[in-house]
Amino acid sequence: MTAQILYAFITVILGVGGCFGYFYGSNWLLDKTFPANANNDASAVRNLRIQGNIRPWLFLGPAMLLLSVYLIFPVIQTIYLSFHDRAGDQFVGLANYKWAFYDDQFRLSIFNNILWLAVVPALCTLMGLIIAVLTDKLWWGNLAKSLIFMPLAISFVGASVIWKFVYDYRGAGQQQIGILNDVVTYFGGDPQVWIALPFWNNFFLMAILVWIQTGFATVILAAALRGIPEDTLEAATIDGAGPFKIFYRIMVPQIYTTILVVWTTITVLVLKIFDIVLTMTNSQWNTSVLANLMFDWMFRGGGDFGRGAAIAIVIMVAVLPIMIWNIRQANAEQKGH
Amino acid sequence: MLKRFSLEPSRIALNLAVLLIIALWTFPTAGLLISSLRDKNDIAASGWWTALSSANVNKKTHLKDMVDQVEKDGKFTISGNVFEGADAVSGKVSAFGTKVQAPGENAAGASAALDGGQSLVVNPDGSYVLSSPTAFTADNSGIRVFYIASQPPRFTLDNYQTVLFSEGIGRSFINSLTVTIPSTIIPILIAAFAAYALAWMKLPFRGLIIAIIVGLLVVPLQMSLIPLLKLYNAAGTFMGAPSKTYLGIWLAHTGFGLPFAIYLLRSYIAGLPKDLIESAQIDGANDFKIFRRVVLPLCFPALASFAIFQFLWVWNDLLVAIVFLGSGPDQLVLTGKLNALLGSRGGNWEILTASAFVTIIVPLTVFFSLQRYFVRGLLAGSVKGG
Amino acid sequence: MANIKLTNINKSYGSHHIIKDVNLDIKSGEFIVFVGPSGCGKSTLLRSISGLDQVSSGTLEIDNAVVNDVPPSKRGIAMVFQSYALYPHMSVFENIGFALENQGLPRAEIKQKVEAVGELLQLTSYLTRLPKALSGGQRQRVAIGRAIVRGAKVFLFDEPLSNLDAALRVQMRMEIAKLKRDLPNTTMVYVTHDQVEAMTMADRIVVLQAGKVMQVGTPMELYENPNSVFVAGFIGSPKMNFITGKPAEKLKAKTIGVRPEHFEFSKTATDISGTLDYTEILGSDSFLYVSTSTGMLTVREPGRTQFKTGQKLNLKPIAEHVHRFGVDDQRLK
Asked: Which of B25, B265, C65, C135 is most buried per CB count within 10 Å?
């Protein structure tokens, strides 16, 4: 064990050190090659200008390199692969897309994704809004928000284990250790295999994501609520409006854009959902979503890159418009102040 | 902002409503923690919420048989303790009986009259005395007794011990650290330099570069996996080295995290007062010096925010780890290990719960201690203020 | 010793032509003030001299050397910003010493120079403090200290008093005046929109409007002999009165200008008469706002006025203090 810790430690130091080394080293080299410290020497002035032309690229270089390799190249490559066969050699035109269109699993995945899209963002945003409003007035509001927020810090796998405890099934007549079944049997019902129920199992999986993501919505919306000028609320109270009226006539309209931003951000996340389905059901019982399908095709039977890529493109095309809108909104809000 | 004007549905109702929601929310996690501390038999036997109070258990046992009888004062007695034996549990007996339909017929400590003049007393501590005016024979000894015992909650750290040392969780923990720490520090470094360059340095095509980087925020991770996998494999065979290394995954996480990092840091750095940068320029500092001495110290909040985000994201990641790092004991990260356990040891709840908790304890600690920055980071991307 | 010479300086940002053909000769050791309304280009001009912005065309010389392409740190200038631009995370000592650090001076020398400046500006007991623990006046002194310690030949001030409240502003004006006295060989270029600052501190004033130099002269020259309606109206508070119509025609001008203190009262009717609308009694002076056929006029009376609101007043400008302007709004000879 100690050997491993030591090895890990050294690896980390080397990695991080290498990075620091590049930045310090390259800048030092630049300064040495084009010295500019003499006062008012014509060459010092010229060197300073040369430094000014080269240095930005030293700063930006690693980022651009990494982005090209890890994001730009893959996008182009994936588009390319989606038009080729399983090993990426032969051009097959739209064959992969055609296959996807007629494939049952693909259609099922799209259907499931749509289901997730319809339910999760709306639920998260709504609950986030309600919780944000309720906790705003409490003296222990921040603590409450932290607790709602906490599931965000947990990995999806961890969350799955937690929720396995909630959904666990034992045969009828046995002691139940899953909370849900325990409650159901207490009220006289039969225990169910929740994650295998046709159609409804998707919702039980969605509950997990809602549990995790509502915290995100709560934090953003709580901050937005704080930004509402108190005067408008006080004026409304003086005008005789009750709390619910104030909520949907005064508060909500003023944070409308933020609500939309939250809603769309969660939407993008939902489109990429993978871990939960993988760990809870591994796509069985008709719970498959696009990301899992893509993953399967990547590794199934040696990997079919063409089909996997086609599915990836579908995911991206779905995500693209929403994210563009999202970023535009965020930029506009920033410019606003 | 705590003393806002008051909405006046009763404050009690408000507090209760929130309390209910909070309880609902923390319930599942609490369940995990409590389960991980229970004895493994208990976990399989009953729900975790029962662990918090003494549970009433119906048990049965056989009393000792005729060979153990003792004669005393003209009476024959057989004594013992119901808590001994193969099916041993501990606790207090609250009631007992001899018929299966009425296991709690007699209160503990009271004397029960049985057939053939025998009487039986079972005491709360489990000790019993079966007495008979005549000697016991094979027919009327060794009888079955039912009793109801209440057991206090039992907790143990055994599961954690097992999990950390014999199940390889300890190693996975270190692997996760080895992956996460550089994958957090390196992106920050690279992104900070790039962000400064894009915010304050003279660059041709600066606007275009910024637009592209923001555009890359859109690319879903999944799109990169297949091409990168092919690339890594090709590079691996080319260099005669394994394709799945720590360096590989550090670079991958850095690449994936850069758009968000640069986006966040750039807008923060661009928001720094222009005078400061100009003053430093007049003071003769070159950009590297300005970055190190003026800008970097001032953008600490933004750096902290991103660091937390990235740390949590990488620590909790499963997909990238599966694809770019292997599953050997020297490489499998915590999330992967947990996933594997779910598959192979799905029935061993005690292992699963303790492992899961080990997985989440680090992010939870990081989260709770540095919450402020986490929240600020979220807000920087979406909403003004905060 | 450092004179500054601007020859045909033009500065444009894209299609916006901000500075138009400016020619200026700033003498060594002079305290010159650029003044003008918002957007006139005074800050841009200052920044062009500093090198933070490049001039689009023209020649800029500092100390008889052309510095168009020389970066700011090499021009021998120091700048005091409106916000002071103190590095918030560095102590006063580090703030002042930063420039010396960049020059690569040894630590001992830096310490000596910073402490000398600290003593000069009475900052010795604050050297270890952070900027946020300093008052507005102290911060300004640190900003000035930064400029002094570099031994710069030219100091550039970009509206340094705008962020201060009125009382502090007076005090700081005195400090800057003292600085000017203590450093007679340093050329100081000061930008402000406040003409009171200009009048009280400048050796010479440059009045700018829409990127062009309107007039250059000493404060009194500008006050007594403004060469245009614009300069006449800009310098002096309250503003000079401008009268068109019959009174101007009588003096063969399109517009005549009379400062508030240059009116006399007549018992008989004059060309300029009206009703007293409103009085402001300040104690030392009274300002009378008189509504006439040619507009609202401001008249200054020393002490407390005896006139009452609604009273009819006959005003007569004092002949030698009447400014005559022609059709092009320029002064008539």
From this structure: B265
- State mean pLDDT over A215-244: 84
Domains of chain C: 4-233 (3.40.50.300), 239-325 (2.40.50.140)
**A132 and A23 within one domain:** no
Query: Does any domain span residue A16?
Result: yes
Which residues of chain C are within 8 Å of residue A44 when distances are taken between CB atoms? 74
Structural domain includes residue B296: yes
Choose among C71, C79, C89: nearest Cβ to B279: C79
Confidence bin at B241 (pLDDT 50/70/90)? confident
Q: Pick from B119, B151, B183: which residue ends a domain?
A: B151
Residues B203 and B352 in one domain: yes
Nearest CA in chain A to B292: A24
Alpha helix positions (H), chain C: 42-50, 92-102, 107-120, 136-149, 166-182, 195-201, 219-224, 229-234, 246-250
CA distance C254 to C250: 10
pLDDT digits (tens, 9 = 90+) for C114-135: 999 999 888 999 999 999 999 8
Distances, alpha carbon A63 to alpha carbons B190, B201, C82, in Å: 6, 15, 35
Task: Find which of C47, C67, C87 to mutate to test the B interface (most B CBs within 10 Å of its CB).
Answer: C87
pLDDT tens string C181-217: 989 999 999 999 988 899 999 999 999 999 999 999 9
Q: How many angstroms separate the CA atoms of B8 and A137, rounded?
A: 11
pLDDT of B54 higher than 70 = no
Measure in Å the smallest separation between the Cα of A48 and chain C Cα atoms. Answer: 8
* Beta-ladder partners of C285: C302
Q: Which among C71, C72, C83 is the nearest to B275, CB-wise?
A: C83
Over the stretch B67-119, which tens digit does the pLDDT of each residue have? Answer: 777 887 878 888 888 777 655 566 778 788 877 777 778 888 888 888 777 88
Structure-block tokens of residue A283: 């796509």
Is C308 near chain A, with CB under 8 Å?
no
Q: Are residues A241 and A105 part of one domain?
A: yes
pTM: 0.78
Residues of A in contact with B196 (CB under 8 A): 59
C82 neighbourhood in chain B, CB within 8 Å = 275
Question: A183 lies in a domain?
Answer: no
Distance, CA of A312 to CA of A314 (rounded, Å): 5
B46 contacts A165? CB cut-off 8 A: no
Instruction: Give the end of a domain, one of A51, A82, A113.
Output: A82
Q: Is the pLDDT of residue A264 over 60?
A: yes
Please name every residue paired with C187 in a beta bridge, in sequence order, or none if there are none: C154
- Tokens found for residue B71: 């004669």
Q: What is the mean pLDDT of chain A?
A: 83
Q: Is residue B119 part of a domain?
A: yes
CB of C71 within 8 Å of any CB in chain A? yes
What is the average per-residue pLDDT within A240-260?
83
- Domain span at A274: 97-163+195-336
Contact B321, B303 (CB under 8 A): no
